[in-house]
Structures are given as structure tokens and as C-alpha cells.
């Protein structure tokens, strides 16, 4: 039994205990009768401006830039999209089982090739030109912390661990450096550990950490970000093996269309509008 499957089973059991039914698959406005429907999943935490809001709801009036990209993708390919939010590891499980056709945003991890398909170059490595976007992990500490990061070495941890979000690729990156890592399911849990002194630092995606900190400035006002970034990575729409085997031509078209939309001046203008706080339609 895989780790993703074990986590998903436990989560399903918990949802049954509390009587929580999952939301219906959320659909953007466009519908193309007689055309395929692609089911994509993404996580329940905010990653502004790529996806906004928390929980399972999707506000299609202002969903986030990646959701805008996918809505454009559906229109260009004339395919229907069914999009739903889940905790990250649950989403990976749905991809593995073929219940979801794709998950975003997924950085490259060799082990994820077992459960999904990245856009690739001729040598079989992921093609960053067909990624959704690039984002960076940063180390976060409390103001006045002795922890230092010079771009090469993390110093001043003492005997404490660095916190990271469960299932995120930064866990393996830190462990490969010999850093002790303690994981937590969501950003708020990890920030609370940092504030309480249970971990020496917290490694998180820049925008996700910023959104969590901004959600409770009284609690997290002393959390600061260390420069430079720990690592910057391309992030992809990872497609399921089941979908790629079922319709390889459409899967390839999805990857190509992501690149085309990112290069479109109209989409770039929308990205600038999101950055300014008011998306332009």
C-alpha cells in the first residue's frame, strides 16, 4: 500500500466519521456538448495569485491565475473541465488511481513519475517550457533567530528540525542536505510550531507562506523570510497515467496549450492585473 493510498484511506474514514460529504465537481462557465471532460484537482490551501481562497469552494469570479489559465485551456481545446479541491496528498491519491486526470501544481520528483506524467524533453526529463509557472521555497524564522541561510548552508538550527508541509518536494530537498525535517499537514500548523519554538525554521513556498502569515498577523507578525530562496522550481500540471494512455494526443495538446497560453500577451496582461489585485477579464 502506497503512502498516498494510506493517507487517503485515513482521510476518507475521518470524513465519514464527521459526516462530511465532498463538494460536487466545480465547473467553469464554458460547456462543450459531446466533448471530453477532464477532471483536475488542486489543494485546499491558498497560493496567491495562482489560486485563491481556502477550503473546497472555488469562486469562478476570481479563482486565481492558474484557474484562469485552465479555463482558457478548456476553451482553446473545446474540452470541459471539472475541477475540485482536496488536501494535497488526497489529490495525489486520486491521480494515482485515475479518479483525477491531473493535479496542479506539481514540481518534479522522480518518484511522482510512478503516479503521473510530466511534459518531457527528448531525454525524458521534464520540459520547463511547458510548466504552469515557477515558484520558490524560502526559509522562514522568528525575528531575531540565530538561524542563517547563505545560499549554501543552513546554520544555527541547534538540535531542532526545519518544518515543512507534508508531501511537498522541499522535504526531500532538505533531507538530502542532511537537515532534520518535521512535517505538518498545512501551513498554519507549521507556523504555529515555529511561533511556539518547536521547530527552528519553516521551509515553504513563498506565496503560500505569505498568505498564511497575512491571515493572522497578530500571531505571525514576528515571522520573517530569509533571503536568498532555498530553491526555485518549475511547477506542472501532472497528468494521470490513465488519462495519457486513454488519449495521448489530447494529453500532449494540454501541455502544448499551457505553454501557448503562458506566452500569450493577453494572458500576461491578466497576470499583471492579478499581481495588482484586480484581474482583468
From TrEMBL:
<protein>
    <submittedName>
        <fullName>Amino acid ABC transporter substrate-binding protein, PAAT family</fullName>
    </submittedName>
</protein>
<feature type="signal peptide">
    <location>
        <begin position="1"/>
        <end position="26"/>
    </location>
</feature>
<keyword id="KW-0732">Signal</keyword>
Amino acid at each position: 500500500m502506497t503512502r498516498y493510498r494510506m493517507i487517503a484511506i485515513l482521510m476518507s474514514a475521518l470524513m465519514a466519521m464527521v459526516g462530511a460529504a465532498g463538494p460536487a465537481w466545480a465547473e467553469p462557465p464554458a460547456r462543450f456538448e459531446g466533448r471530453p471532460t477532464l477532471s483536475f484537482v488542486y489543494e485546499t490551501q491558498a497560493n496567491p495569485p495562482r489560486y485563491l481562497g481556502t477550503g473546497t469552494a472555488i469562486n469562478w469570479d476570481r479563482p486565481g491565475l492558474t484557474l484562469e489559465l485552465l479555463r482558457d485551456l478548456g476553451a482553446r481545446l473545446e474540452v470541459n473541465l471539472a475541477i475540485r479541491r482536496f488536501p494535497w496528498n488526497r489529490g495525489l491519491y486520486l491521480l494515482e488511481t485515475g479518479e483525477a486526470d491531473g493535479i496542479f501544481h506539481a514540481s518534479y520528483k522522480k518518484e511522482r513519475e510512478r503516479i503521473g506524467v510530466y511534459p518531457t524533453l527528448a531525454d525524458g526529463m521534464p520540459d520547463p517550457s511547458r510548466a504552469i509557472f515557477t515558484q520558490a521555497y524560502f526559509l522562514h524564522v522568528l525575528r531575531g533567530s540565530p538561524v542563517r541561510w547563505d545560499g549554501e548552508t543552513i546554520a544555527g538550527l541547534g538540535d531542532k528540525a526545519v518544518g515543512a508541509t507534508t508531501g511537498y518536494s522541499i522535504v526531500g530537498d532538505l533531507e538530502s542536505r542532511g537537515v532534520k525535517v518535521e512535517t505538518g499537514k498545512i501551513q498554519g500548523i507549521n507556523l504555529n510550531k515555529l511561533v511556539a519554538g518547536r521547530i527552528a525554521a519553516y521551509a515553504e513556498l513563498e506565496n503560500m507562506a505569505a498568505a498564511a502569515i497575512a491571515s493572522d498577523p497578530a500571531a505571525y507578525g514576528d515571522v520573517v523570510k530569509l533571503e536568498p530562496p532555498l530553491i526555485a522550481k518549475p511547477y506542472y500540471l501532472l497528468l494521470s497515467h490513465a488519462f495519457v494512455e486513454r488519449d495521448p494526443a489530447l494529453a500532449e495538446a494540454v501541455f502544448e496549450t499551457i505553454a501557448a497560453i503562458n506566452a500569450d500577451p493577453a494572458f500576461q496582461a491578466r497576470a499583471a492585473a492579478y499581481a495588482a489585485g484586480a484581474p482583468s477579464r
